[in-house]
Specification:
heterodimer, A: 103 residues, mainly alpha, B: 175 residues, alpha+beta, 4-stranded mixed β-sheet, globular
Chain lengths: 103, 175
């Protein structure tokens, strides 16, 4: 499951990074998407959601593809846990206390 | 949805409630007894230094596994940390902790998971070094963090590491 707050924080951070890489100001970029500079500030901070058409316009101005900035689900933490659970001593501990029923 | 920010107020409430139920009035806090009170059995186990602790939830009884090669104070912190997961983070049937390191936030890291660990650490510190007891102990002290003997004496009294006590004092008294 994607955490919605995290999703927009990450999306905003990526947009900001792209904008800073281009050297454009928030006002420059906000204008093409028809939003205020304040809105863009909030979007970059993950505090305001972005409509898809706005995202396309923003990305167009930034010379980026929306796919580059949209966060994808990262299974990393789960994988960490699974990897740890596969360590033989850990695996046998879990089995010994659950009768092999956990997970 | 997992919380994005550590819920310090909730942690404080949970810890106060647990300390009261366990009848803790002076240090050191009996952390294993508290685990039992909350339905968890503590098992020391040899994990080959691979992990420091593990929480396995069972319907009848949960199990907290603690690396026995760790120092006694570290074991107590691990138990308290796992109790934190037990109380604060429902849903996971098995939670494994490799080591308790302060992780710097990176864009790659999953914040939700980091928040869980931050919460469990805050819970452990609050449980092992209860605010009211510690404040009472230091009320007449002028803590000098350069003078290790003061902090060490408190660490000994609470049966925690000097490092854990230093962090706790800085959190409670600093700033």
């Amino acid at each position: 499951m994607i955490d919605r707050d995290e999703f927009y924080i990450e999306l905003g951070a990526k947009l900001r990074a792209k904008r800073e890489a281009t050297g454009l100001t928030q006002a420059d970029v906000a204008e093409v998407a028809g939003i205020s500079r304040t809105s863009l500030t909030n979007m970059e901070g993950g505090r305001q959601r972005i409509l898809v058409d706005q995202l396309v316009l923003l990305c167009g101005k930034l010379g980026a593809s929306p796919a580059e900035v949209i966060p994808v689900e990262t299974p990393r933490p789960k994988r960490d846990q699974a990897k740890l659970a596969d360590i033989p001593v850990v695996q046998s501990f879990i089995q010994s206390v659950t009768g092999g029923q956990a997970r | 949805m997992r919380p994005r920010r550590p819920r310090y107020a909730r942690i404080r409430r949970e810890v106060l409630d647990i300390l009261e139920r366990a009848g803790v009035t002076e240090p050191p806090v009996p952390v294993e007894q508290i685990a039992r009170l909350l339905g968890a059995r503590v098992m020391l186990s040899d994990f080959n230094n691979e992990i420091s602790g593990i929480l396995v939830r069972n319907e009848d009884q949960s199990v907290i596994g603690v690396a026995k090669e760790q120092s006694k104070t570290r074991q107590r912190f691990t138990i308290a940390h796992e109790i934190g997961h037990l109380v604060l983070h429902e849903g996971e049937s098995v939670h494994i902790d490799r080591e308790f390191r302060v992780k710097l936030r990176s864009r790659q890291s999953s914040m939700a998971v980091d928040v869980d660990e931050i919460e469990a650490n805050a819970f452990a510190a609050a449980l092992l070094m209860p605010e009211t007891l510690l404040r009472h102990d230091v009320r007449n002290l002028d803590i000098d963090f350069d003078d290790a003997s003061q902090v060490d004496a408190l660490a000994k009294r609470y049966n925690v590491s000097g490092q854990a006590m230093t962090f706790r004092l800085l959190n409670l008294l600093g700033g």
